[in-house]
Design brief:
Number of strands: 4
Distance between the termini: 34 Å
Largest sheet: 2 strands, antiparallel
Low-confidence stretches: none
Number of helices: 0
Order of helices and strands: EEEE
Mean pLDDT: 83
Length: 71
């Protein structure tokens, strides 16, 4: 069973201005995410996290791949 919830933000700007610098699941009614995968335009996984609490920025993607800012 695959359930997709609309709990992901639609804005993300990792420019270190303190606003929307980290992409992470947010919402109500669910407290954990099974899987978050971020792909680049060529289909390569640039970020993956499994089994983590939502609404916590520390578990999100900061726009980097291997410590380097992604284009």
């Amino acid at each position: 069973l695959l359930v997709i919830l609309n709990i992901y933000p639609n804005t993300f700007s990792p420019n270190d201005d303190g606003s929307n610098d980290v992409f992470y699941p947010r919402g109500r009614g669910i407290n954990r995410a099974k899987l978050l995968r971020i792909f680049n335009r060529w289909g390569e996984i640039v970020y993956e996290r499994q089994e983590f609490p939502i609404n916590q920025e520390i578990y999100g993607w900061d726009g980097t791949k291997n410590g380097i800012k992604a284009n």
